[in-house]
């Protein structure tokens, strides 16, 4: 799958995004930027190629494809249930949000064809770009900062899960794997693929049941959502939705699986569409001065989270 951006403007949409808009009609929340220099999506990623181009020939692309082969074979209903039970205990560590941000310096996402920088820089790049365009939505700034913190489960002190169980695009399990999922062909080797209970459009779910009732492939998204929810975060519903589904590209980019959504999901998806622009296109080699912006983000952490959390 190739995700192409024809012009560096948010209003321009790819074929997938156009398909998405045909399926769900909504009005986007408005920017409240104080100037005319809103964030512009670049045409090329940090490697000089189109964003989310999974077909380009390169050594990194080969490793990304191998990553998705392994992920698609192993992400099953049984595996997801096992991981949710294990990591839902939140017994790995007790620490603050900022301590977790610093831990993320040790993580590089092997599934990402657009960036090979430490994750803390991606978080700050996303958050700062959103902060500029939506200065009054402080919950969205913080959501951008923390959305990938769940990737720490790839570190030894959190169980050292393989990257295919931590990063990459997410998708529902327990129903048919939609063809919009990148490298879909590898699902043929997934044990659930031939399971009659799981291989229909709705599978074990019902239309309009709500995404909260749908099991997603296990990874950092669902883990960080559990951490926020179980530790009593006061982030609004849209913020928690973004954390949980920001890697759900088959939904927010391809426009699939909308038949499982309820009305609250549709409202929250508006904010996820906004967030995705900054999550995907703010990746660059230009570093944010961490110490300069830290006081602001610490104030948001204190506003929406307890001092320490169970992880």
UniProtKB/TrEMBL annotation:
It comes from the Eukaryota. It is found in: Cytoplasm. Binds 2 iron ions per subunit. This is Inositol oxygenase. One of its GO terms (molecular function) is inositol oxygenase activity. Pathway: Polyol metabolism; myo-inositol degradation into D-glucuronate; D-glucuronate from myo-inositol: step 1/1. It catalyses: myo-inositol + O2 = D-glucuronate + H2O + H(+). It comes from Cardamine amara subsp. amara. It is an enzyme of class 1 (oxidoreductase). Substrate binds at residues 52, 109-111, 151, 168-169, 246-247.
């Amino acid at each position: 799958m190739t995700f192409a951006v024809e012009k560096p403007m948010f209003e321009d949409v790819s074929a997938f995004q156009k398909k998405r808009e045909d399926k769900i009609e909504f009005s986007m929340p408005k920017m409240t930027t104080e100037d005319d220099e809103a964030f512009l999506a670049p045409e090329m990623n940090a490697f000089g190629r189109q964003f989310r181009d999974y077909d380009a020939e390169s050594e990194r692309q080969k490793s990304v494809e191998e990553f998705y082969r392994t992920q698609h074979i192993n992400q099953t209903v049984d595996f997801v249930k096992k991981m949710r039970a294990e990591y839902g205990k939140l017994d790995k560590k007790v620490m603050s949000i900022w301590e977790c941000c610093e831990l993320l310096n040790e993580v590089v996402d092997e599934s990402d064809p657009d960036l090979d920088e430490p994750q803390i820089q991606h978080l700050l790049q996303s958050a700062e770009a959103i902060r500029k365009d939506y200065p009054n939505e402080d919950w969205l700034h913080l959501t951008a900062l923390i959305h990938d913190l769940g990737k720490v489960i790839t570190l030894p002190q959190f169980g050292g899960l393989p990257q295919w169980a931590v990063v990459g695009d997410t998708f529902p399990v327990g129903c048919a794997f939609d063809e919009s999922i990148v490298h879909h062909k590898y699902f043929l080797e997934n044990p659930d693929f031939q399971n009659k209970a799981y291989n229909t459009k709705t599978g074990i779910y019902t239309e309009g049941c709500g995404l909260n009732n749908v099991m997603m492939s296990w990874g950092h998204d669902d883990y960080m959502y559990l951490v926020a929810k179980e530790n009593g975060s006061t982030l609004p519903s849209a913020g928690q939705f973004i954390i949980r589904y920001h890697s759900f590209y088959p939904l927010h980019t391809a426009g699939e699986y909308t038949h499982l959504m309820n009305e609250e999901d549709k409202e929250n998806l508006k904010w996820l569409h906004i967030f995705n622009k900054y999550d995907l296109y703010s990746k660059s080699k230009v570093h944010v001065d961490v110490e300069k912006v830290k006081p602001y983000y610490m104030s948001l952490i204190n506003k929406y989270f307890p001092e320490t959390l169970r992880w």
